[in-house]
Amino acid sequence: MEFRYLGSSGLKISEITYGNWLTHGSQVENETATQCVRAALDAGISTFDTADVYANTKAESVLGEALKGERRESLEIFTKVYWPTGPGGKNDVGLSRKHIMESINGSLRRLQTDYVDLYQAHRYDTETPLEETMQAFADVVRQGKALYIGVSEWTADQIRAGHALAKDLGVQLISSQPQYSMLWRVIEEEVVPTSRELGISQIVWSPVAQGVLTGKYKPGQQPPAGSRATDEKGGANMIKRFMNDDVLTRVQGLQPVADELGLSMAQLAIAWVLQNDNVAAALIGASRPEQVTENVKAAGVTIPAEAMARIDEVLGGVVERDPGKTAETSPQKRPA
Residue 166, CB half-sphere, CA atoms under 13 Å: how many? Predict the structure, then answer.
C-alpha cells in the first residue's frame, strides 16, 4: 500500500481507501461486510470512509463493529453529514448547526470512537448560511470530535468560500470528495485547479464508474444478475447514465490497454485516477473480500504516458467533462 498526504495537512492516508456506501447495512450481510473490512486491513488499507446516510446510519454501525479492537491511532476514519437520517424530520437534514452537532454525536456513537479524522459536508446546503455551517464544523473540531474537515461534491466557488471561512476560524478544510473516473472528469477544469491552489486534495468516489469500467457490462446484452445495474434500491439509478451501447463499446476497447499493463480493468480504472497528483485516494467498495484483494493491486501503479493517451483515444467523446455537472447533479434545496 502507498500513502499520500491529504491536502496541505500532515495527515497521511492510504491511497486506496475503503468506502461502504452501497454495501454495508443494505446489500451485503454484516458478516460479509466484516470480512471485507478485514481484507482491507490485511491489504494495508488504513483509511475508511462512510456517512451517516448510508443505509440510514446502519453502515456506520457495521463499520464501527468491524473495526472494533483495532488500534485507533493506526486508522483514519471519515464520515459525512447532510442527507436525511433517522425519521427524516424537518431538522434531520442539511448543514444547520443543530443537525451537524446532533449528527456528529450519533456518528461517533455508531462508529465506537471518540473522534473521526475527517468530517465532511456531504453536499452544499443552499438553505443554511455558509457561515453557520463552517462555525459548527469549527466547533466540532475544537471539541475534539473531528481532526479535519472536508466537503463532497461542492463546486469550485463553494470550495473557495468554505475554505476562506475555515481559515478565518482557524480550522483546516483539506479535502473534496467528488465522483471521478475515466468517464466522469467534471472536476478537472475548475475543482482540481482551485483545490491545488488552496491545499485541498480529492478523495474520489466511483473510480470504476459504478462498475462500468470493469467491463462486465456488454453492449447489446442484459446486465448480469445481481449487478449494480439491476439494483433498484439506488444502484441502477446511479449507473444508468453510463448504460448505453456507445459507452459500453468504448469501455470494451480498454481491455487491450489493461492486458498490456498486466492489470484487470478495475485495477486500470483505479490506477488511472491515482495518476492525478491532486487525488489523495481512490474509494473502493466491495461485496466480497476478494474484490478488495484484487483492487488494492492498483496501489503504486504508474500508467505510462502513451497508455494514458490511448485511454483518451479509446473513450473519445463519451467522456463527461462539463464542470457545470457538479452543480447540476447537486440538490438545489434540502431533500424532504
Answer: 23
Overall domain count for the chain? 1
* CATH number of the structural domain spanning residue 35: 3.20.20.100
CB 321 within 8 A of CB 188: yes
> For 36-75, what is the HEC assignment?
HHHHHHHCCCCEEECCCCHHHHHHHHHHHHHHCCCCHHHC
* Residue 46 pLDDT level (bands cut at 50, 70, 90): very high
- The secondary element (H helix, E strand) that includes residue 116 is strand 116-121
**Placement of cell 471521478 in the chain:** 180
Examine residue 316 and state whether it is found in any structural domain, yes or no.
Answer: no
Q: Any idea which residue has 483505479 for its cell? A: 270
Does the residue 197 lie in any domain? yes
Residue 113 lies in a domain: yes
Among 16-30, 161-175, 201-215, which stretch is predicted with the lowest mean pLDDT? 16-30
d(CA 281, CA 270): 10
Are 6 and 12 spatial neighbours (Cβ–Cβ below 8 Å)?
A: yes
Q: What is the mean pLDDT of residues 210-215?
A: 91
Tell me the residue range of the domain where 53 lies. Answer: 3-208+274-302
High-pLDDT (> 90) share of the chain, %: 79
Cite the DSSP H helix spans in 130-170.
Answer: 130-142, 156-169
- Phi/psi at 23 (5° precision): -120, -65
Does residue 332 belong to any structural domain of this protein? Answer: no
Residue 225: predicted pLDDT: 65
Q: State yes or no: pLDDT of 237 exceeds 90.
A: no
Enzyme catalytic residues: 54
Q: Taking Cα atoms as reference points, which of 157, 26, 167, 51 lies closest to residue 103?
A: 51
